[in-house]
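Reviewer comment 2.1 asked that we show a complete input and output for one of the modelled complexes. We chose the pyridoxal-5'-phosphate case, as it is the one discussed in the main text.
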Amino acid sequence: MQFEASGAFARQLDAADELAPFRNEFLIPERNGRAQIYFLGNSLGLQPRQTAQHLHQVLDQWAHWGVEGFFMGSDPWLQYHDKLVEPLANIVGALPSEIVVMNSLTVNLHLLLVSFYKPEGRRNKILCEAKAFPSDQYLLETHVRQRGFDPADVIIEVQPEDGQTEITTAAILAAIDQHRDSLALVFWGGVNYYTGQAFDMQSITSAAHDAGALCGFDLAHAAGNISLQLHEWDVDFAAWCSYKYLNSGPGAIGGCYIHQRYHKDDSLQRFAGWWGYQKETRFLMQKGFVPIASAEGWQLSTPSPLLYAAHFAALQLFARAGMDRLASKGQQLSDYLLFLLQKIESANRGLLHIITRSSAKGCQVSILVPNIGKQVFQYITDKGVFADWREPDVIRVAPVSLYNTFEEVFLFCQYLEEGLAAASAK
Ligand SMILES: Cc1ncc(COP(=O)(O)O)c(C=O)c1O
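Response of the prediction step:
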C-alpha cells in the first residue's frame, strides 16, 4: 500500500478498518478528559469493558455456592478451562488438546524444561538468543545448574553480527548446524522484547529437529501479536503470558502448548500435582500420579477462576476479531509507523535510529534515540503517549490491532518529531 504522511490519510485508513469498532470494547486511559495514546500493549494490554462483568460472575458464584461453585452455577469452575482452550488454540495455531492454561510464564517454562530439556551424554547443550528477556536468561542458568551443569558449559547464546541488533535466520541456522552433535534443545523467543524482531519459528524448529534436538519458544511477545502455527510448524513446546497482547490483566494466568505426540509419552519427566491427574478419578485421591492425556496433564495446582474469567473476557474478543485479521492490521499499523519514522530518521540524521526491521516484526517498533532520548521520551509522555523507555536510550512502542488507530500512529510521530526538535535545540 502507498502510504501518505498526513492526518487525513491516517483517518482514511481508520475509516476503512473493519476492526475499528473493537476499540469501544476497551477502557482507554484518560488524562484531563482526553483519551491517551496507549502504545504499551506489549507490556500490559488494556482492560476489556466486559472483564469486570466476568469477574463479578465468579464472585457472585462464590458468594452463592461457596466451594460448590466448582460444580454448580451457570459456569462451574471445574469446566471453565474448556472455554479457554478453543480460542487460544486459534490464536497460537494448535489443537485444543495441545493447550493448557495455568500459572505464569517463567514458572511454566521451568516446568516445560523439566520435560523437554533431556540432556544425554554430550548432547546436553541449549541454544538460545543472546540478550533474551532477563527472566529467560535466569531460568536457563538456574535450571541447568539444578541438573548438575555449569551454565557456561551448556548454554550457547547466538549473538547478532557486529554492529547489528537483530539475529538473522541464517545465523541461527548456522549455529544450530555448528552444534548439531551436542544440542539437546533450541529455546528461542517468538518476538524479541527489545528489538521487536519476529523470528522464523518454522525454520528454527525444522533445523533443530534436523539436528536431533527439541525446540521450544517463549511467546510472551508473539501470542496475540503475530500469526502462529505451532502445530503445523511441529514445535515441541511453547509458553506465553496473557497480560500483554492478550489483554487478560496484570498477573494474568499463562498458557502453554505441548505437541500432542508427548501427551501419552510416559518416558518424559514432569513435576506433577493433583490438578494434572486424570479427571475421572482425581477425587478418589489415590496414590501414584496418572496424568490427563493432554497438555492439561502438566497442571499442578488449583487454578483461580477469577484469572480464568479475566482471560475469557479478552479471548472472546480475539475469537470475534479473528487472529488473521488482527495480525494483518498489526502489520499494517507498524508498517505505517515505520513509513513515518523513516521520514523522521532521514530528516533528523543521527538523532534517531530505527531498530526494528520492516521485514520481520509484529506490532512493536523500537527506536534508538542517543543522548537526548530521555528528554524526547518526556516530551511525548507529556503529549499523552504511553510508550516504553528502556535504558539507556531506547523507546519501544506497540500500536495494537484491537484498540489503536492509524491516527494515533500519525500523532505519535508528530509528537516525536516535535520532541526531537525541542531536545536537540537545547
Ligand atoms: C519475553 C519474556 N519472557 C518472560 C517474561 C517473564 O514473564 P513472567 O513475569 O510472567 O514470568 C517476560 C515478561 O515481560 C517476557 O517479556
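Residues 104-106, 133, 135-136, 189, 193, 218, 220-221, 241 surround pyridoxal-5'-phosphate (CB under 6 Å). We note this here for comparison with the apo prediction described in Section 3.2.
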